[in-house]
Amino acid sequence: MKQPIFQRIETNIAGCFELCPHIHHDERGQLVKIFQQEAFEAEGLCTNFTEDFYSVSLENVIRGLHFQTPPKAHVKLVYCINGLIQDVVVDLRTGSPTFGKHTIVHLSAEKGNVLYIPAGLAHGFCTLSQAATVVYKTSSSYSPAHDSGILWNSADIPWATSNPVLSARDLSHPPLSTFSSPFVFDQTN
Questions:
Q1: Number of separate domains in the chain
Q2: Of 123, 136, 142, 173, which residue is the catalytic one?
């Protein structure tokens, strides 16, 4: 029987998983397989990714909390290929038992872990190392008309820095308390 390419770890938010791949080490270093269509299909996960991009952030940078609204909402795979980040998602799906709640997963190049984020969750991270390179795979392409966010400090997240570096855009998002969500929780996913 073939060994699965990753271990799937449930988070406290339905549909959001930490995926821990099996890392192959040898004298040259390591090899990490992040995505395999058949393995994702077997787990009932999205396999239709249309865009890949990455960001490079310095220590104490917080990016987020970002998402795209329907009909351009998307599933995200997020992983760190250099450094260490505190990765955070907030459930924005009305009717969800965890609406407004967050989960935190530390992603690192060393661990090779991935966060699988369903549509309807806001995403952000804080860089914990001197720099970090974070890769995103999304199931829909970037749409400026649907690009949105909530204020980084409005969801009771215990961020790993008390002196964050933030963009003007991220400082201008509405707080969670005034956000009118277009997302609806679907128990079948």
A1: 1
A2: 136
